[in-house]
User: Fold this.
Amino acid sequence: MAYEPDDYLSRHVQTSEVDLPSKVDELLALAAPGNSPNLPLYREMLTTVIHMAQADRNRWDAKIMLQTLREMEHAFGVLEQLKRRRKVTVFGSARTPVDHPLYRQARELGALLAHHDLMVITGAGGGIMAAAHEGAGLENSLGFNITLPFEQAANSTVRGSHNLLSFHFFFLRKLFFVKEADALVLCPGGFGTLDEALEVLTLIQTGKSPLVPVVLLDQPGGSYWEDALGFIRRQLGDNGYILPTDLNLLHLVYSAEEAVEEIARFYGNFHSSRWLKDRFVIRLNHPLSDVALAQLTREFAGLCKEGGFTQQASCEQERDEPELRHLTRLAFAFNGRDYGRLRALLNAVNAPENWAT
Assistant:
């Protein structure tokens, strides 16, 4: 059967005795700056709420929307003040005891990340989360707490501070774990840690989240992540459920120093990336040499739907980020699929021998 759009809600707005679209515009004129590029988005948000009110959804649905909007707006406001600081999300068990080697390792990790001016994001609980915040200190810590009836009181580092955000819904908390992360370090843990690890990998693998370093950290001699990777290789890789190159998205280390080195190496030349219509743009701290550019075109041609790699300056479409205008861009028509292979490309981009002198 042919698809027929359900425009019941739009009809309901159109047949209302009150000119609601005009009222929405009047409200926006009072609330938002007149030159804001977000005005069309705010209009859609308000219209969506009006649709819900007109349909008079059940109370539980209305509460979900209210709680979601309220928590997101509050989190955006808090995190806006820290948007130019790079952050590392650290996952791990809340049940790791203080005298465990993993606790000491996570505390060392937090201290090293803070030394490199990286903020440490955790779920704000105990165990690995408390250890990482303890090492980083309050000024370098962010806690994204979840309201649970057990186990999840905020740790002493962030408790009662402005660096603590509390979430009612797991999905919102997980959104900010990934949205704010310039890197992720995963320590051994339970169902929650594995859930977060697999969700992060799925988001990166499918291009729903920007490509960032994902570091698996275990204690020396530990087998937690090696056993997990063995399962992934045998069951997912050998059966074709993932691409062989998808394993490039992960890096296993056995010390806090190695974890921080991997993150620092990732940002040696790579700064950030974005889509500009059908072109994928990688912003570079250092331009690449002509020899390196030619080598990338030969070695990574399969990443391009057409053409090859070009270096260029910022363009008009990027005027919303003027502070990044000075960076060189590596642009190409990315196939949007093989992010594991893209990770290998970034390794080449970050190699100092490939930078122009």
Residues 1-12 have pLDDT under 50 and may be disordered. Residues 41 and 47 are 10 Å apart (CA to CA). Residues 59-80 form the longest helix (22 residues). The radius of gyration is 23 Å.
